[in-house]
TrEMBL record:
Family: Belongs to the EamA transporter family.
Residue span, EamA domain: 6-148, 164-294
A GO cellular component annotation in the UniProt record: membrane
Pfam short name (any one): EamA
InterPro entries: AA-Vitamin_Transporters, EamA_dom, EmrE-like
Entry keywords, A to Z: Membrane, Transmembrane, Transmembrane helix
PANTHER family: EAMA DOMAIN-CONTAINING PROTEIN (PTHR32322:SF2), INNER MEMBRANE TRANSPORTER (PTHR32322)
Record's protein name: DMT family transporter
């Protein structure tokens, strides 16, 4: 299997797992009365303990290698930025957006990250966006407009808070997609994910203090938490972040469209979330945007 095919399968598989996890998160918020400030700290901490625990028994020396300040202090700094500003805040903002809207809206707003990656690449390469890249930016803006207003200039179909959380979430995707390249060249992706989750879980427990909320999940809620942890954290991040180095962040962003599609289908069929023609048009605009942004890789230019 070529790296391109393997990378595509890994990123699509990871994205689909995120979609399943997002739909489960919507179920927990709407049917089990959970709160994102309770769910996310527990989700991150459990996932981090699972992955770090695996490496503790598999290779204890490798587990602590990224924290060897004397060997390379940049690794410690990179891991802190990647784990906290990237992965952890992405997780919190993603589930906050779901709680404020739907899983489909949250995932499609998160998928605006390729436009931000494009802008970062243009700055790094000191060039202006090409014509098709400008078209992709306009399509992204149009897609967001259709999703959030349903064509009305006087009202929003989603709350301003959900829109803001989703857009900032897209910024954090840029961080965890582009920042860890040097770390990934030295350490296994699941190990980096484990530390990122553990850092975020510890930090959010200190910030939100979920043990003071008095919430006790039902048996179904516990199963939902396990799905969110095992499918949405451990499996999804490991698959996606293993695929990105093989095909590059731009092409990976195209295949990650499996996430909003999965989330929208499941939330509509299983949870009864509305999905209108305006939503379909918005999804279509953002999908075409992703196709346009994959053109450099498809035309022979190296994926960045």
């Amino acid at each position: 299997m070529s790296d391109r095919v393997k990378g595509a399968c890994l990123t699509m598989g990871g994205a689909a797992c995120w979609g399943i996890s997002g739909c489960m998160g919507q179920y927990l918020f709407t049917r089990e009365n959970m709160d994102s400030t309770w769910l996310v700290p527990i989700r991150l901490l459990l996932a981090g303990l699972l992955l770090c625990g695996y490496y503790f028994f598999k290779d204890r020396k490798q587990l602590f290698a990224p924290w060897n300040w004397k060997a390379d202090p940049r690794n410690t700094i990179d891991l802190l930025v990647y784990g906290l500003a990237g992965v952890s805040f992405c997780q919190f903002l993603y589930f906050l957006t779901i709680q404020l809207s739907t899983a489909g809206i949250a995932t499609i707003l998160q998928d605006l990250s390729p436009v931000l990656i494009l802008l970062v690449l243009c700055l790094q390469q000191r060039r202006t966006p090409r014509l098709f890249e400008l078209c992709s930016i306009l399509l992204a803006l149009l897609g967001v407009f259709l999703l959030t207003t349903h064509g009305s200039l006087t009202s929003l179909a989603v709350s301003p808070a959900a829109l803001a959380a989703g857009l900032v979430c897209a910024c954090t995707v840029v961080i965890y997609t582009m920042w860890p390249k040097r770390l990934q060249a030295q350490y296994p992706t699941p190990l980096l994910q484990g530390w990122a989750f553990l850092l975020g879980g510890a930090a959010f427990h200190l910030i939100f203090r979920p043990w003071t909320m008095g919430y006790v999940p039902s048996a179904v809620g516990v199963i939902g938490i396990l799905v969110v942890v095992l499918v949405g954290n451990v499996t999804a991040f490991s698959l996606y972040m293993s695929g990105v180095p093989l095909i590059g962040p731009q092409r990976a962003s195209l295949y990650s469209f499996a996430e909003p599609v999965t989330a929208a289908i499941l939330s509509t069929l299983l949870l009864g979330s509305p999905f209108t023609l305006w939503d379909a048009l918005g999804f279509g605009c953002i999908f075409v945007m992703l196709v346009l942004l994959s053109l450099p890789a498809r035309s022979g230019s190296p994926a960045k």
